[in-house]
Amino acid sequence: MKINDILSILDARLLTPNADLTRDVHTACGSDMMSDVLAFVKDQSVLVTGLNNPQVVRTADMMDMICIVFVRGKEPDAGILALAQEREIAVLCTRHTMFTACGLLYAHGLRGGVGSDGE
Amino acid sequence: MASESEPICLHYEVPGNDFTRAGEASADLKARLKALGFPSAAVRRAAIALYEGEINLAIHAHGGHINVSVTPQRIDMLLWDEGPGIADIPLAMSEGYSTAPDEVRSLGFGAGMGLPNMKKYTDEFELTSTVGVGTRIAMAVYVS
Ligand SMILES: Nc1ncnc2c1ncn2[C@@H]1O[C@H](COP(=O)(O)OP(=O)(O)OP(=O)(O)O)[C@@H](O)[C@H]1O
Ligand SMILES: [Mg+2]
């Protein structure tokens, strides 16, 4: 799957216009608790979250993730987007809830990552 | 890479209760290590451990201080603060234990995974603390 596919699967909007949408993504992580995200290095590439603050970008950056999806229509502010852009992280925003967004991505083949806790 | 004889020394001051700036030190360290050509796994482990520590300084200790020393063999990180200290260290180290208030939880922290993560991602980890005086964490990541 590519970031472009996530856009259409989640009927999402791209908030970082210059992002490279052709980058491959295979695994994702959905959480609102940043230390939970940091607990398992599984080479995930997508962070799905309902949290809306700069630490989301910092956490994704620490994990070398390349795409953040904000659920429930949460729109990060300009400072957060600038931080993401600086790190070449694509930021998407979808109206779906966390549960639905993760379900849709899973149904389309995105997984929890290698060595994961039961995916 | 850093030369064998002279470690690269870095110092950071972490402001208290500033959620926008918390994470700047670890992001800076990560960028520097990457630029120096360190292996990505070691870079990631060091950056995550420092990030967790930095967030703790900001939310639990009203800020604190970080010294990092980098050689081709190891990344040493020292964090210290003059915060409230930790009364029961084994309890604080256990997964899921957190005293973070609701407002901190609503910001995405307070899972009680920070200290366990720091220990997990580092090769050396030592936490000492005195209630009312402060907390000190010395940790190291071996490069290979
Ligand atoms: N520097 C510190 N000074 C005082 N207390 C601390 C410090 N660091 C951690 N603690 C205490 O140890 C507890 C556990 O820390 P830990 O980092 O594991 O979890 P957390 O910060 O509460 O949540 P998380 O890290 O998952 O977001 C904290 O809730 C806090 O009570
Ligand atoms: Mg913590």
Helix content of chain B: 25-40%
> Which architecture of chain B per CATH?
2-Layer Sandwich
How many structural domains does the protein architecture of chain B include?
Answer: 1
Binned, the helix content of chain A reads: 25-40%
Number of helices of chain B: 5
* Number of E strands of chain A: 5
Structural class of chain B: alpha+beta
Task: State the end-to-end CA separation of chain B.
Answer: 13 Å
Q: In this structure, how is the largest beta sheet of chain A organized?
A: 5 strands, mixed
Number of strands of chain B: 5
Number of domains of chain A: 1
CATH superfamily of chain B: Histidine kinase-like ATPase, C-terminal domain
Largest sheet of chain B: 5 strands, antiparallel
Small molecules in complex: adenosine-5'-triphosphate, magnesium ion
Query: Measured on Cα atoms, how large is the radius of gyration of chain A?
Result: 13 Å
Give the CATH topology of chain B.
Answer: Heat Shock Protein 90
Low-confidence stretches of chain A: none
In sequence order, what are the helices and strands of chain A, one letter per element? HEEHEHEHEH
**Gross geometry of chain A:** globular
Strand order of the largest sheet of chain A: 1-5-4-3-2
